[in-house]
């Protein structure tokens, strides 16, 4: 009898044969260490692959963010408003700075959802900014017209109202 086994963790393959000898079944490994695409289990490459896989799952679940990709930069330090960042989205890339894999996954989800919400509110933000800009321009134009009118105003000469220099009374001011 001949059976083939493969290890779920390492992918190693072994063949077990059973014959009519007294020694019982024998196991002969055919490939002790198969080639891995992602490096050793738990290594940096496999963690990045897990982040990429999670990002793809999120994209499919929400059907958005298909343009995003993820970069894992463990230990890189970035600050915003005096606080250290765990991650951020820059130019279509979610940058993850957490070293711990579970924290990195949590940060990926947080940044993806933040990106998704920002995409929804962006049109409203754009309209509000255009409205503010238009109102600022209108206020500026009104201010300039008022300044022009004020600069052409003929104001009475204060010295003429007080009489000749030797008879002047002190001004009371504001």
TrEMBL record:
Name this polypeptide is given: Uncharacterized protein
Organism per entry: marine sediment metagenome
Region (Disordered), start-end ranges: 18-47, 153-174
Basic and acidic residues bias spans: 155-174
């Amino acid at each position: 009898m001949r059976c083939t086994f493969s290890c779920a963790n390492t992918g190693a393959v072994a063949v077990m044969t059973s014959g009519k000898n007294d020694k019982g079944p024998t196991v002969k490994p055919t490939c002790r260490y198969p080639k891995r695409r992602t490096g050793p289990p738990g290594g940096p490459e496999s963690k990045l692959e897990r982040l990429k896989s999670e990002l793809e799952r999120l994209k499919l679940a929400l059907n958005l963010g298909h343009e995003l990709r993820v970069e894992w930069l463990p230990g890189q330090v970035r600050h915003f408003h005096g606080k250290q960042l765990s991650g951020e989205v820059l130019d279509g890339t979610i940058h993850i700075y957490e070293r711990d894999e579970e924290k990195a996954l949590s940060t990926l989800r947080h940044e993806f959802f933040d990106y998704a919400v920002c995409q929804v509110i962006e049109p409203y933000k754009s309209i509000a900014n255009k409205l503010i800009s238009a109102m600022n321009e209108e206020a500026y134009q009104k201010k300039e017209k008022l300044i022009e009118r004020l600069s052409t105003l003929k104001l009475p000469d204060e010295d003429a109202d007080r009489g000749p220099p030797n008879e002047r009374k002190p001004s009371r001011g504001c």
